[in-house]
Amino acid sequence: MLRIIPNITIADNEIEEQFIRAPGPGGQKVNKIESAVQLRFNAGKSRALSNTIFLRLKRLAGQRMTHDGVIVIAANRFRTRELNRQDAKKRLIALIREAAVQPKYRRLTKPTKGSKRRRLDGKKRKGNLKKTRGRVTPSD
């Protein structure tokens, strides 16, 4: 069981792990050992996530989510399977936690009288500065 937040837990059978060969340099074992992990979580069919959390998760995940609603996370930072496995799970947890936080909506407000006055004063100052610019006459 993965505990995301107190009211969201994901069962182990909802997460599918597949080990693949990690890209990049690795020495003699590079073509023998599959140390990278590809974690798959079907967020679309998961009972742990509500529809609103799923929609936010879909927006946050971007290309990491397939059209079917499956999140695919590939972890290959480390040389061992276990560290890559933990890394993939941590990244999944962080992604779902971020989606679980409901964004605060901005309330529209009107500008204050003081801010309007300061804006107009600034415009007048700029206009007066531009008025003083011009050609220099020989009498000056």
Structure overview:
This protein is of the alpha+beta class and 140 residues long. The protein has a single domain (2-100), classed as Double Stranded RNA Binding Domain. Helices cover 36% and strands 19% of the residues. It contains three helices and five strands; from the N terminus they run E-E-E-E-H-E-H-H. The protein has helices at 51-61, 81-100, 113-132, and strands at residues 2-5, 8-10, 15-20, 36-42, 70-75. A three-stranded antiparallel sheet has the order 3-4-5, covered by helices on one side. Helix 1 crosses helix 2 (81-100). The longest helix is centred in the middle third of the chain and has 20 residues, at 81-100.
Jot down its keywords.
3 helices, 140 residues, three-stranded antiparallel β-sheet, 5 strands, 36% helix, 19% strand
Counted beta strands? 5
CATH-defined architecture: 2-Layer Sandwich
Outline the low-pLDDT stretches: none
Number of structural domains = 1
Q: Predict the CATH topology.
A: Double Stranded RNA Binding Domain
What's the CATH class label?
Alpha Beta
**Tally of alpha and pi helices:** 3
Mean pLDDT: 84
Order of helices and strands: EEEEHEHH
The portion of residues assigned to helices is 25-40%
Largest sheet: 3 strands, antiparallel
Distance separating the two termini: 85 Å
**Rg:** 28 Å
- Overall geometric form: elongated
Strand content: 15-25%
User: Structural class, judged by helices and strands?
Assistant: alpha+beta
Major beta sheet, strand line-up: 3-4-5
